[in-house]
Specification:
- The structure is a single chain.
- The longest helix is centred in the middle third of the chain and has 18 residues.
- The mean pLDDT is 94.
- The protein has a four-stranded antiparallel sheet.
- It has five helices and four strands; from the N terminus they run H-H-E-H-E-H-E-H-E.
- The chain is α+β, with helices and mostly antiparallel strands.
- It has a domain of 102 residues: Muramoyl-pentapeptide Carboxypeptidase, domain 2 (2-Layer Sandwich).
């Protein structure tokens, strides 16, 4: 498709681990769904505020150490429909394989290496949902979120 990251998206990658930046840059070049970077590195205070308002569930966020990004599907000013994020996750999966980094997606928390997952990102998400439901637990879907696994 040939999308490119905007200056704003690139600035939001400041302080993010170079391997994650490489995955994002690879993904934007191969994705079927344009996206922007909405969050990279966070301070502890920013994370604390997000936890306080319920927008995040943990103070152990990988955003704090630069190993996570949140991406937003870019069309009509930004959209949140889950199916758009399957496309982004497939591109991030391809990027993770190309860069050689383990990547976890916030809609498939039980898959610790999306790049090694055999199948689509949608399949990975459905597997996670099935596992959570079999445990009698509600799935936590954070489709914009991607983090490296070291």
């Amino acid at each position: 498709m040939g999308y490119k990251l905007s200056k704003r998206s690139l600035s939001r990658l400041d302080g993010v681990d170079e391997k994650m930046v490489a995955v994002v840059k690879y993904a934007i070049g191969v994705t079927k769904q344009d996206f922007s970077v909405i969050c990279g590195l966070r301070t502890i205070d920013e994370q604390r505020a997000l936890v306080a308002k319920g927008a995040s569930q943990t103070m152990k966020s990988k955003h704090i150490d630069g190993n996570a990004v949140d991406l937003m599907a870019y069309c009509d000013g930004g959209r949140w429909e889950l199916n758009l994020y399957d496309e982004i996750a497939d591109a991030m999966k391809e990027g993770a394989e190309a860069v050689g980094v383990k990547l976890r997606w916030g809609a498939a928390w039980t898959v610790n290496d999306l790049g090694a997952w055999e199948g689509s990102a949608e399949d990975a998400m459905n597997s996670y949902i099935d596992i959570r439901r079999s445990q009698g637990r509600r799935p936590f879907i954070d489709a914009p979120h991607f983090e490296t696994m070291f």
